[in-house]
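Hi team,

As requested, here is the filled-out complex form for the iron/sulfur cluster run. I kept the field names the same as last time so the parser does not choke. Let me know if anything looks off before we queue the next batch.

— J.
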Amino acid sequence: MEKILEVKDLEISFQSYKGEIQAVRGVSFELAKGETLAIVGESGSGKSVTSKGIMRLLPHPFGRIKNGKLLLSGEDLTERSDKQMRDIRGAEISMIFQDPMTSLNPTMTVGSQLMEGLMQHRKLGKSEAAEIALELLRQVGVPNPQVRMKQYPHQFSGGMRQRVVIAIALACNPKVLIADEPTTALDVTIQAQILDLLKELQREKGTSIILITHDLGVVANIAHRVAVMYAGQIVETGTADEIFVDPKHPYTWGLLASMPKIHELTESLLSIPGTPPDLIRMPAGCAFAARCPYVMEVCRALSPRTKVITETHQAACWLLDERAPRIQPPQGARP
Ligand code: SF4
Ligand code: MG
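And here is what came back:
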């Protein structure tokens, strides 16, 4: 299994007038070639911040990488200059967002936006770039690409716009595509089409994907592996099967139990009672203790160590200690 990206002990903080926000607190994971890793968690769990950190797109001067390594094919991105990062972004790592309008330029035709990256990163001439742009629009399933090339983003539907964004993101065959809630703004049928498209393109191009989402339905559809984030840490990681069939962390149980039966939900509808801890003044012990139905005395005093369950499955919870009572996940968290 070829490792494309290794994130090692990543710490990211933000300066605020109240103090330092510890948004990402020691996150480590690996991404293999052609693999999709989903990072799931509620709003504010640090999943988007992690991805912006990988892209080196944290807001200046408030956000910064305090510690850790970001190894892209063995090269540490934390040591790259801003200029080098501009070349790496789009060419080696690309990102797509929830709202395609944020990544498209409303004043440029879709064709020129596609050609721009090709000319800049792949050093192609205009006519060659135009040819490839046309082919890319075809690949992502935009009908009448010849006509569409000359149109502006507002002339596209939401789903078609997201297809264009995917075409732009994949134009230079990046090693890694980070997709942050790529289908959240779309209706259910279009969501499924976009996920199918991502899967198909991944098969063809061997792209590795980091999918950031709060929607476990999306995860089940596309992810090979899942990392569950809470309060800036990964609390459980495993293959999609391990997370859905044999989840070990009470927070994962809560996420699974609050999976919508109908597909429409926003991040605020998650039904785990309580709110995440204050990331400026983190309490001692387990970050989930204040909301956990199974909290024990030890949880409030000491952070749980990460337990290895299988070669691919790990979780950080005191319930996995030999001395803890045996607790079964609640009904809703079972398949
Ligand atoms: Fe709950 Fe304790 Fe496990 Fe934290 S360590 S999730 S508080 S049981
Ligand atoms: Mg987010």
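Two things worth flagging: The mean pLDDT is 92. The first strand starts at residue 3 and ends at 16.

Thanks,
J.
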